[in-house]
Amino acid sequence: MKAAILGAMPGINHIQRVVISDPGKPAYGEIRVRIASNSLNFHDFNVAVGVLPAAAGRILLSDGAGVVEEVGEGVTEFAPGDNVVSLFFPDWREGEATVANFSRTPGDGIDGYAVSRVVRPAGWFTHMPKGWTHSEAATLPTAGLTAWRALVVNGKIKAGDDVLILGTGGVSIFALQFALMAGARVWATTSSDEKAQWLLKKGVAGVVNYRTEPEWGKKIFDMTGGRGVDHVIEIGGPGTLSQSIAAARIGGHISLIGVFTGVTGDVSTGDIIAKQLKIKGVAVGNRAHQCDMIKALNATNIRPVIDCIFPFEEITAAFEHQIGNRHIGKICLEL
Ligand SMILES: NC(=O)c1ccc[n+]([C@@H]2O[C@H](COP(=O)([O-])OP(=O)(O)OC[C@H]3O[C@@H](n4cnc5c(N)ncnc54)[C@H](OP(=O)(O)O)[C@@H]3O)[C@@H](O)[C@H]2O)c1
User: Fold this and answer.
1) What is the b/e burial string over 165-197, where b = at least 16 CB atoms within 10 angstroms of the residue's CB?
2) Which residue is closest in CA terms to ligand 1's atom 44?
């Protein structure tokens, strides 16, 4: 059975494709799953290049979807043939977060889903949305759930709210879809005029190019009629936060999600106080959140935006495509 593992040296060119032994039969409470697809996340890239150090030999990738082949004794939620999708925090079932690190995240602290078959506790998976492909479902555990948590769980988004998404990556495009689903008005930034056209066609009310317009936050604020946005999907970090604050309305909600410009920096605390903002750190979500999101997806026509699907063997090329920032939405691998 095939797997993609972290080599002795970090780097996407050092990822090793190996043959490993079959995981065998599921024990009590476990299921055996044939993994059909993965999606890539910036987190996976950071593990692969050693920014997030993980053990050599670690099976990569946090997100996987596949088919249940066998269930162990005591498993009632799944049966052979069910389509399932993994969890970013497999031990966090509900309520407040139980971890503040990635020690139990697949593809980082523990083995991930870049592998043909796994035997894992049944609770480490949920059912997939009905009728979705495995690649579509594999986009959900990290990017989908983070956007859901930011807007629906934490943001309690309402019809008529204004939402700002930054860029056109996996989290932001899910946020766009969930915001439109809720009846919100969506604003966006991007680095590309071509992507701006794509966003406008998808129903975004207005787009600002953050490369040519450094004061994009003020611009978005003005475009909302001088009120500002209710929610910001902040995927940039310290290099973008000041402009996100500028874009927000008084009392607005900023979901602090991404680290593209680093993990520490200057913050205009005076502006946060003056605007009485709610700034909430988001680390994906729990199993109950994922079940709620999938229930909602089963009731809508939303399908994930997949930029491209690479064969499993081309995992390095898939990561290269990811860091090229030419994609819109998600990048997947098929086993
Ligand atoms: N906290 C959490 O729970 C959580 C969960 C998932 C992801 N994340 C983090 O959130 C971020 C986004 O993840 P993702 O999976 O959506 O990544 P992704 O799909 O790789 O997103 C890439 C896109 O982000 C945009 N972007 C990059 N740098 C930017 C910047 N400085 N300002 C504005 N936009 C920028 C670009 O869009 P354009 O080409 O349109 O400019 C780029 O194409 C990453 O930092 C990731 O680690 C955090």
Assistant:
1) bbbbbbbbbbbbbbbbbbebbbbbbbebeebbe
2) 258
Confidence (pLDDT) at 323: 94
Residue 197: CB partners within 8 Å, gap ≥ 6?
Answer: none
What whole-number distance in Å separates Cα of residue 306 and Cα of residue 136? 7
Residue 98 has pLDDT above 90, yes or no: no
CATH no. of 2-139+304-334:
3.90.180.10
Atom 2 (ligand 1): residue with closest C-alpha? 283
Q: From CA 173, how far away is CA 29, in angstroms rounded?
A: 35
Per the CB < 8 A criterion, the answer to whether 222 and 205 are in contact is no
pLDDT band at 176 (very low <50, low <70, confident <90, very high): very high
Rg (CA), the chain: 20
pLDDT one-digit tens code per residue, 307-321: 999 999 999 999 999
Cα 33 to middle of ligand 1, angstroms: 30
Distances (CA, A) of 335 to 115, 186, 188, 209, 231: 8, 35, 34, 36, 37
Q: How many CA atoms lie within 13 A of 116 on its CB side?
A: 11
Q: What is the largest CA-CA distance in the chain?
A: 61
CATH 3.90.180.10: which residues of the chain?
Answer: 2-139+304-334
Residue range(s) in the chain whose domain bears CATH number 3.40.50.720: 144-281
Answer yes or no: are the C-beta atoms of 277 and 246 closer than 8 Å. Answer: no
Query: Is 40's pLDDT higher than 90?
Result: yes
Rounded to the nearest integer, the mean pLDDT of the chain is 97
**Cβ pair 331, 319 in contact under 8 A:** no
Query: Does domain 144-281 correspond to CATH entry 3.50.50.60?
Result: no
pLDDT digits (tens, 9 = 90+) for 248-287: 999 999 999 999 999 999 999 999 999 999 999 999 999 9
Instruction: Determine the distance separating the centroid of ligand 1 and the alpha carbon of 83, expressed in angstroms.
Output: 28
